[in-house]
């Protein structure tokens, strides 16, 4: 009897271990399958290998897709200029869907025109609600073509196609926001589009007059003046968005996250959005709480794809940015200085806000850029100014590209050829 019982126990344990191992392997396959990388079709094989190393993945760990210029044109044709469309695709993307409520987190490397917050709010328009996204290139590119790769990767990762109308709207929104950012600054442009979209979807606004009023109110909050042409473009975009079946409860986390990032970026340069005294206090202490949380919790647990990128691989001049600053490895001294700068700018902005509104002092884009540079230089004399957008969607910048050739010698010949072929 005891012998039979022992044999039964052995068989039970063996079967249990087999089942556990089988389920574990299935889980690993699912996890790997849920991570998708898209590579620009015009990159050399060496450059593609570098991008995989930057993302921190091997070829057999993720699904790898290629994106070409024809795919970009499918959604950008008619809303982007030929210079923005370009003729080649160099940008790459790494996408992982995340659990519900996580929102959209974006990290960029060598992307000079489309900011992380701009991409995040645009992806919410495309129908994404929860995802981690990394956009990168071997050399500086504008990044307008990256959106196509992200949408393609997300569809493959989830196995569910995004609605065509929403993908087209997302592409139009990206170009509209970027063009507006060329005049008033990328953060303000992103904030305006994101806030208007939030109000339209949350309140289910359909009436064109109410849409125009919403735009006017939000624009006033950012203390900017838009041209008639810019207003018409915004109204047209928001009218199209109002006709879609967006669910605000699903988009809320993503939209609020973008708003917080924009407010934090503007606060860092001494500007504030006029959302009211109590909302301003709430946003400030929320930002401070997030800062302390990141500082004393060891930043991140490293489980996100945003944490696993090899930023040093692209060279010391690579432009790295993210919606979650904890995924960027900054020296502790800069973090501390950034904390006290945040407090100072918030207090000065809080008590000077009314006087600024009364005077109606308008800052031109050039003056705003100069102010930004002076503020950044006062914190860190070694920090570099933001690069200007390129003329084509994924065309490398000649000056930044030269500096990167010293870092990536294996790509030298192909990169020089790309410079000669760029628009």
UniProtKB/TrEMBL annotation:
UniProt signal peptide: 1-31
Keyword annotations for this protein, in alphabetical order, are:
Signal
Q: Give positions of region: Disordered.
A: 356-423
Classification via Pfam families: DUF1002 (PF06207)
In terms of InterPro entries, this protein maps to: DUF1002
Which ranges are annotated Polar residues under compositional bias? 385-423
Keyword Signal included in the entry's annotation: yes
Q: Where is the composition biased (Low complexity)?
A: 356-382
- The protein in question is named Signal peptide protein, YSIRK
Q: What is the lineage of its organism?
A: Bacteria, Bacillati, Bacillota, Clostridia, Peptostreptococcales
């Amino acid at each position: 009897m005891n012998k039979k019982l022992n044999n039964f126990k052995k068989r039970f344990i063996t079967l249990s271990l087999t089942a556990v191992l089988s389920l574990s392997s299935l889980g690993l396959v699912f996890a790997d399958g849920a991570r998708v990388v898209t590579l620009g079709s015009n990159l050399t094989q060496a450059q593609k290998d570098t991008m995989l190393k930057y993302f921190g993945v091997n070829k057999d760990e993720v699904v790898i897709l290629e994106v070409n210029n024809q795919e970009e044109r499918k959604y950008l044709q008619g809303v982007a200029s030929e210079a923005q469309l370009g003729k080649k695709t160099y940008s790459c993307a790494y996408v992982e869907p995340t659990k519900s409520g996580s929102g959209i987190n974006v990290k960029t490397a060598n992307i000079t025109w489309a900011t992380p917050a701009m991409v995040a709010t645009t992806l919410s328009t495309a129908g994404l609600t929860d995802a981690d996204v990394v956009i990168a290139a071997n050399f500086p590119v504008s990044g307008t073509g990256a959106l196509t790769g992200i949408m393609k990767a997300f569809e493959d990762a989830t196995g569910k196609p995004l609605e065509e109308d929403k993908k087209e709207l997302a592409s139009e929104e990206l170009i509209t926001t970027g063009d507006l950012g060329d005049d008033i600054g990328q953060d303000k442009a992103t904030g305006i589009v994101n806030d208007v979209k939030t109000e339209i979807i949350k309140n289910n606004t359909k009436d064109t007059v109410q849409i125009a009023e919403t735009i006017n109110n939000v624009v006033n909050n950012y203390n900017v003046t838009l041209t008639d042409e810019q207003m018409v473009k915004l109204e047209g975009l928001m009218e199209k968005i109002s006709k879609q079946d967006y669910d605000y409860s699903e988009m809320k986390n993503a939209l609020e996250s973008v708003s917080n990032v924009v407010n934090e970026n503007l606060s860092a340069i001494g500007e504030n959005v006029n959302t009211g005294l109590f909302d301003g206090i709430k946003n400030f202490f929320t930002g401070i709480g997030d800062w302390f949380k990141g500082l004393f919790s060891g930043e991140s647990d490293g489980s996100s794809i945003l944490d696993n990128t090899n930023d040093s691989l692209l060279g010391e001049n690579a432009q790295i940015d993210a919606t979650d600053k904890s995924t960027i490895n900054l020296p502790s001294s800069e973090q501390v200085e950034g904390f006290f700068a945040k407090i100072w700018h918030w207090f000065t902005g809080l008590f000077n806000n009314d006087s600024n509104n009364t005077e109606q002092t308008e800052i031109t884009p050039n003056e705003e850029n100069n102010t930004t540079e002076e503020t950044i230089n006062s914190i860190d004399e070694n920090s570099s100014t933001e690069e200007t957008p390129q003329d084509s969607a994924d065309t490398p910048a000649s000056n930044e590209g030269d500096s990167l050739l010293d870092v990536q010698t294996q790509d030298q010949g192909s990169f020089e050829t790309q410079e000669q072929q760029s628009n």
